[in-house]
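EI: anyone free to look at a 281-residue chain?
SC: sure, send it
EI:
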Amino acid sequence: MKTGAIAKRTGNVILFVFLSILSVIFLLPVFIVAVNSLKGKFYISEQPFVFPNAETFVRIDNYTSGISKIDFFHAAGWSFYITICSVIVILIFTSMTAWYITRVKNKFNIALYYVFAFSMVVPFQMVMFTMTKVANMLHLDNPLGIILIYLGFGSGLSVFMFSGFVRSIPIELEEAAMIDGCNPLMTYGRIILPVLKPISVTVGILNTMWIWNDYLLPSLLIGTEYRTIPIAIQYLKGGYGSIDMGAMMAMLVLAIIPIVIFYLVCQKYIIEGVIAGSVKG
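SC: here you go
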């Protein structure tokens, strides 16, 4: 027993050290960006891994410069609008879809489930040109239309995860609700939706991080008129390859802050939701 306990403890220590090193590796780029956002743009390329000193420290000049150059708060407004609306639409429609195709067993629903699962392995680059053409024809190349596009691209993983979680919900809960007089919509709203909270938060986090940081889809559909933060940051590139590195680092820090706060607030649901959505059923 003692040998087994020592081996288990040693394994835990090794795992802890490994994960700690891995965490530092992942966090190091973010730390470097934050440090360089406080340095003059001419020193960033020359001394990217050196802390600011009396000569290189520029306080918040990079932040004020970047905000004014790209109209950061206007871009942040569009990013918040598109991200929040898209995530809400994805959560509502994909959870309903997953509940239906899981509870109603027929060949069509089984095929539909596999279509959603297959969509996860199709690279965006394969469909982006045809998608752009169709979106233009249907007048979806605007902030409202892009929400529907995000619903289409985000439905595969979301339906897959919701379906796994729905299978773990006892069918007796829904039968009891229907005996009490609930119709399917009332059953979904009063019984299923509250139970889906852990997996809903997980799906919401995954889609929020994807949509908030997405550059390619907004650049293809809505361009510069309704530019989001990733698109706006690209405007810090000048002619002949010149880049205001200080302002760009500062804007990257501001772009990271909302998603980090959202992640920290919701992190307690992530592991529970991922395990339930991937394993159960």
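EI: Residues 2-36 form the longest helix (35 residues).
SC: 👍
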